[in-house]
Amino acid sequence: MLTYQPTPAGTSRSTVLIIGLGDTGVLVAANLSKTFRVIAVTTRPVLLSGQELGKRLTDLEYWKSCYLTPLDAFKKLDNVEGIHGQVVALNPEDRHAEVIDSGGNGLTVPWDYAVIASGITNGFWRTPQVTKVDHILRQLEEQKAKVMSANRIGIIGGGPSATSVAFNIASTFPDKMVELFFSGDEVLPGYHPDTRRYHMKALVTKGVALYPHHRAILPAPERRTQLEQGTVAFTSGQPSYTGDLLIWASGAVSPNTHFLPKQMLDEAGFVRTQRDMRVDGYDRIFAIGDVAATDPLRSSARNWAYRILCKNLKLVAEGKTATHQFRPPKHRWGSIVGLQSDGLTLHQWDGRRRRLSRWFVQAILWPWVVTRGIYGGIKRASRQ
Fold first, then answer.
1. Domain spanning 142-248, CATH class
2. Do domains 2-122+254-330 and 142-248 have the same CATH topology?
3. By the 8 A CB rule, do 344 and 338 touch?
4. Coil, strand, or helix at residue 163?
């Protein structure tokens, strides 16, 4: 990534400002950088993926090799100008953003088009703070050590992150007592019923103690971002639970939209986004990922939505109509527990599942399909 230059000489291309370089932000930047001048504001100088939380806590070295990548390692980001910092205000009328960089300096960044990919805050693994690499690496090691040292682990939540954490801890450390508390009948709301039943059985097979219909009283947000010993109380009437380690993955997400005008947001604070990926009422502003309210599941972080956004942004910049529409599937889909010793299970939106061998994932899927095909290649010797 290039360093941001406020007044570069000879600039004639339209400027696209991308706010956030998570999984979707990186893909959008990589696919627009040949056509536009792309400026990206990121709170971290690395791609710190929110995916595969269970593997992150139980197999950190493998997880880092796939999901922690320096941004300057992506070949398709070579022409992207990066600012390590945070957007504090977006002005749609005058088309500029106010940014505070990691050194505390204020910048005014003009743009012709903007893409909001600022994501969500969710527990201890998706946070909005501006951080450096050494701090990130230290936190990852500390979180891993806390899991290693605990004997009785309580996980609160029934979504994919909670399911993945419970399954992977129980699979990796069979001597630990792993207990999963969730409010519904089954885990994985939003997934096909067959997928939900499959993982209820898989969790029991691994020795996870399941506690359905347990609706926890949420502590203060700062407590949910900590991995620590504690007690959980339930509004549903069951006795309190005390564990050596509590892992909060209850789905109490908060969109990172504090810098946006209120009229852009829905009642929950997410960005009101049309099927063409433009923000409702703003022709030059697009949104994508967990922050974008495209559908009830906010599923544009998946489902190839970045391709639709990039195609439509290019059409709008040419003065044409944005004709491509994002059509989300009825149910969520994808990997839930990550790569295991017997391979990777991919769940489809219609409940079908497919098992890929571990060899295929490591030798073909990740290096060729994902790294080269989707992300456009990563420079050698650049992983963390």
1. alpha beta
2. yes
3. yes
4. helix
339-364: per-residue pLDDT in tens? Answer: 999 999 999 999 999 999 999 999 99
Buried b (16+ CB within 10 A) or exposed e, 242-278: ebbbbbbbbbebebbbebbeeebbeeebbbbbbbbbb
Helix, strand, coil percent values for the chain (each to nearest 5): 30, 30, 45
Token representation of residue 160: 């994919």
What share of the chain in percent tops pLDDT 70? Answer: 99
Q: Give the number of C-alpha atoms closer than 13 A to the C-alpha of residue 15, restricted to the C-beta side.
A: 20
DSSP structure string for 258-307: TTS-GGGB-TTS-EEB-TTSBBTT-TTEEE-STTEESSTT-GGGSTTHHH
Type of residue found at 62: Y
pTM: 0.96
Domain boundaries, the chain: 2-122+254-330, 142-248
Residue 12 has what pLDDT? 83
pLDDT band of residue 36 (cuts 50, 70, 90) is very high
Is domain 2-122+254-330 in CATH 3.20.20.150, yes or no?
no
